[in-house]
Amino acid sequence: MASQSSFTISEGDPSSTDVEKEVRTARSTSHIEKKQQQQGVGADTEAQPPYREEDEEYDISSEHDSSHHETESKHEGGGGECGVVSRVLSRAISRTSTKSIGPPPDGGLEAWTAVAAAHLIIMNTWGLINSFGVFQTYYATTLSPHTASDISWIGSIQVFLLFFIGTFTGRLTDAGYFRQVFAAGSMFQVLSIFTMSVASGSYWQLFLAQGVCMGLGNGCLFCPCLATLSTYFSKRRALAIGIAACGSATGGLIFPSMVRQLLPTIGFAWTMRAIGFIQLVTLVISNIFLKPRIQARRTGPLVEWSAFKELEYTFYACGSFFCFLGVYFAFYYLASFSRDIIGVSYVDSLNLLLVLNGVGSFGRLIPNHLADRFGPINVFVPVAGIAGVCVLCWMAVTNVAGLYVWAAFYGAAAGGIQSLFPAGLSSLTTDMKKMGVRMGMVFTINSFATLTGPPIAGAIITASGGRYVGAQAFAGAVLLVGMGFMMAAKVVKGRRIDKGGGWRVKV
Is the Cα dihedral 441, 232, 124, 175 positive or negative? Predict the structure, then answer.
């Protein structure tokens, strides 16, 4: 006796109508096959269901493909209506459960809204970090007898935590906890600013508020932000990241200007509260409009050790480590250098920071635009080299005019490093569901560079009796070492793509 089969499909399932049609088609095909076999017609051939264009609308992963073929092979020899229906249901379940979200939109309202939200995030994280020279100069007068190296630890621990917890926040983002991580980061960020307003004059209170609390907030915001933004773009990814990274220049212009104008009139406490209110509003906007696009990857390791078997990934991690070991030296010490060595006023020293951060906008946009055409790592190599040479040339600057010119050139090069770094890293990741964890792993490696770089430079300055030449040589040298590792990553990746392509390969 032929077995009967029944099945139910949820009314809310958008694919239920298609599945029912396919089942009816399969049943009729099965009856035709039986009749043909009874009549001796078509016994040597198996009737195939008609081709439908809808079949091309789904992207079935290899995992589901294998399970689908296994199910089909089990029922193929059994015949009967039950086998036909089972095959159809297996195919339908695989399709509906693994429906592709499609390729990155590379534009459109939702994608560019994500860029705008990411711009605000980076304004509130890296914008404040790049403004630390303002605090370094102010704390030198209010936190005496602490040395420049002691004070730089506040900024260093902040950047360290931003990168260090990237492994954890990146994996949580991949697992579908983007909203929770993002909200926690926003709360830490705002809390740290308002806590700073009541911690003036105490080194350890400022260390905990600005260094630790703000660093945790930065880490919960930055890595998930970039990992999510990268999934919206493919061909124009570097440009999108560059526009978002310009938030660093935006914050680097707004926050030092606020400090310069408000600090002499309303004091440190209310200056920080004013900054805090700006951060509160912009972070709320970012939480609303930045949305995850890729489906959650619930399973998977916290650290994907197999990534380091890819030589280009390992070289890139080493290169970015050395670049970040030296790139922030100027952001921390330019204002102090201008006052101690050149003899400019406090206000003029802040103007130099404004130039350094403002020109960085061009350094973030132009290299990233070129990166979409020639490849982010191809552009990263010369930009890192220019930055290293600029720092070495800093040793020859002896007047105010020369310092402004130098700040403009270095600001552009340093801005390129900051914006090309995530663009190049995302280009080494083909599986977008692993973007968070692979990006977070390199962030964690770089955290130790940002933790030790500025304090090492400060210790060299102190050991040299206040002279900056040794620290400048250190920062320039490590940037050039970073360029060398980036070049190695470029060569390995280029050979993997096209063994005969050489330097022309887009990487």
Answer: negative
- The pair of structure tokens assigned to 412 is 């552009």
> Looking at residue 438, what is its pLDDT?
84
Residue 8's region, left for phi above 0, alpha for psi from -120 to 50, else beta, is beta
The Cα 318–Cα 385 span in angstroms is 15
**What are the tokens at 271?**
């200056």
Which stretch, 188-197, 234-243, 308-317, has highest mean pLDDT?
188-197
Q: At what angle do helices 400-427 and 214-230 cross, to 10 degrees?
A: 60
Distance CA 74, CA 69 (A): 9
Q: What is the mean pLDDT of residues 355-378?
A: 89
pTM of the model: 0.71
Contact yes or no for 16/24 (Cβ under 8 A): no
CA separation for the pair 222, 167 (Å, rounded): 12
244: burial class by Cβ within 10 Å (0-12, 13-18, 19+)? buried
Dihedrals phi, psi of 328, to nearest 5 degrees: -90, 0
Task: Count the alpha carbons within 13 Å of 435 in the hemisphere toward its beta carbon.
Answer: 29
Q: Which helix (H) or strand (E) holds 36?
A: helix 16-39
Structural domains of the chain, ranges and CATH numbers in brackets: 109-499 (1.20.1250.20)
Answer with the residue of higher pLDDT: 28 or 361: 361
310 secondary structure, DSSP code: S
CA dist 313 and 489 (Å) reads 7
**Helices vs. strands in the chain: H and E counts, helices first:** 19, 0
Mean pLDDT within 170-181: 87
